[in-house]
Amino acid sequence: MFDAFRNAWRLPDLRMKLLITGLILVIYQFGAHVPVVGVDPTALENLLSSQSGGLIGTLNLLSGGAVRHFSILAMGVYPYITAQIILQLLVPLVPRLEAMQREPGGQEKIQRYTYFLAIPMAVLQAIGQINIFGTLGGAPIIPGFGFNLLGLAVVATMTAGTMFAIWLGELITEQGIGNGLSIIIFSGIVAQAPGQLATLMNSSTQPLFNLILFVVIVLVSLAVIIIIAEGVRRIPVQYGKRVRGRKQYGGGSTHIPLKVNAVGMIPLIFAQSIITLPAILVNLFPEGQVRTDITQSFGNHLGLAYWVTFFILVVGFTFVYTDIMVAQQNLSDQLQRNGGFIPGIRPGKRTQEYIQRVTRRITFVGALFLGIIAIVPGFVDLINRIIFPTEAIAGASGNNAALVITGSGLIIVVGVVLDTMRQIEAQLVMRNYEGFMN
Questions:
Q1: CB neighbours of residue 198 within 10 Å
Q2: Phi, psi of 51 (to 5 degrees)
């Protein structure tokens, strides 16, 4: 592996790609430390200390750590990811978009629409993020924010920051190594990990126990994530023979690789966004025991009701989003156009139903995996309460070893590392070097 890195560094063009990637990540981290005008640091610190997980943790994760400083990049690339998800959901529902996607150059048009949609999504998220943070923290993050000059300046700055982050990500994809948007998120996770680990060690009365638990969680999670990420079900495909003149074409066999977890961490993002809504909406109702219980459970991410709901949402979104992705790929039509078929299955509708059935069966494993990854902090919190009942452990990152690097973060880290290694491997193999896997 080290020889492969040395070989990669010796290649001038590959070395330049690595340097460009590193330089862009440094620029992004500088931007992540530039705060938005008017931010109240005390209110922000109180919010982060009390709401380190859930929606706050997810937004901080996707922004590369910029939420911690509420910087101009506080939304990161999340509006763009949201726009991508919305268009992916709309394509099979809107015939015009579905037809456009199949046309030559259709993917480029969909990509352009994603950029356009990311701008209003960034505006809405900037307004919503500031208001939600104020609701969860009990004090406004930006005092005086509203429909005024300050509000306009803040929203415009945060929207520009998001588009700048998207541009940096695309620049990495074009000029550097790996998927730029994923690498930006990856760099934020890695940059936050040492600080989170130091907090874990310093804020608890059981630092050694938390450290051992953190190491065990990371090692076990990494092993399971790699197994699930690399796990595929191969459906055999046979291609019929075609005779043209005196020559015979086709007749080969291959397979369709269906991933156990084909949707990555997107269901976790959906569930994280929705699970916080009850704590926000309940503030519209009069005070009472029900309002207090819902705020305590869904606002602070505690209790059986919260974790069971979270698990169900993650599993449900995994099935729904996987079905949509499989329908968009339209594998049965592609096979039929290319003269391919699955042995024992009729082409056309029967093939699509068979692929859908197999996908749902293997998705059950992937959905359970994502659901368990999502509720690991709940298990850790339960263990802490049983072993150390005298400590008031509320699931904050300073006391919960599972929140130093969340399950979502580990999935991103493993995915980005594997993808980047494959790209570097391909570059080395083209130049007759041995790759990482050899």
A1: 12
A2: -130, 60
CA 116, 122, 127, 128 torsion-angle sign = positive
Based on the number of CB atoms within 10 Å of its own CB, is 413 exposed (0-12), middle (13-18) or buried (19 or more)? buried
pLDDT tens-digit map of 382-394: 887 787 766 544 4
% residues pLDDT > 70 (the chain)? 84
Output the six-digit token pair for 177.
Answer: 């190594």
CATH of 2-430, one of 1.10.10.10, 1.10.357.10, 1.10.3370.10, 1.20.1200.10: 1.10.3370.10
The CA R_g of the chain, rounded to the nearest whole Å, is: 24
* Cα gap 374→255, rounded to integer Å: 32
For the stretch 296-325, what's the b/e string if a residue is b when 16 or more beta carbons lie within 10 angstroms of its beta carbon? ebbbbbbeeebbebbbebbbebbbebbebb
Q: Is 365 left (phi over 0), alpha (psi -120 to 50) or beta?
A: alpha
Instruction: Record the pTM.
Output: 0.76
CA–CA separation, 366 and 260 (whole Å) = 5
Which residue's structure tokens are 């990669």? 8
How many Cβ atoms are within 10 Å of 328's Cβ, its own excluded? 14
Rounded to whole angstroms, the Cα distance separating 8 from 12 reads 9
DSSP structural state of residue 38: T
Parse the chain into domains and list their residue ranges.
2-430
User: pLDDT tens digits, residue range 223-265?
Assistant: 888 888 888 888 888 876 666 666 655 566 778 888 888 877 7
For residues 427 and 431, what is the distance between their CA atoms, to the nearest angstrom? 7
Residue 334 CB contacts under 8 Å (≥ 6 apart), including other chains: none
Give me 336's structure tokens: 């039929």
- Give the count of beta carbons closer than 10 Å to the beta carbon of residue 358: 16
Residue ranges of alpha helices (H) inside 276-406 are 277-281, 289-294, 300, 304-329, 331-337, 349-374, 376-387
Strand 340-341 to strand 241-244: parallel, antiparallel, or no bridges (unpaired)? unpaired
Query: How many angstroms separate the Cα of 355 from the Cα of each of 170, 240, 318, 332?
Result: 33, 20, 17, 8
- The answer to whether 73 touches 162, Cβ cutoff 8 Å, is yes
CB atoms within 10 A of CB 250: 13
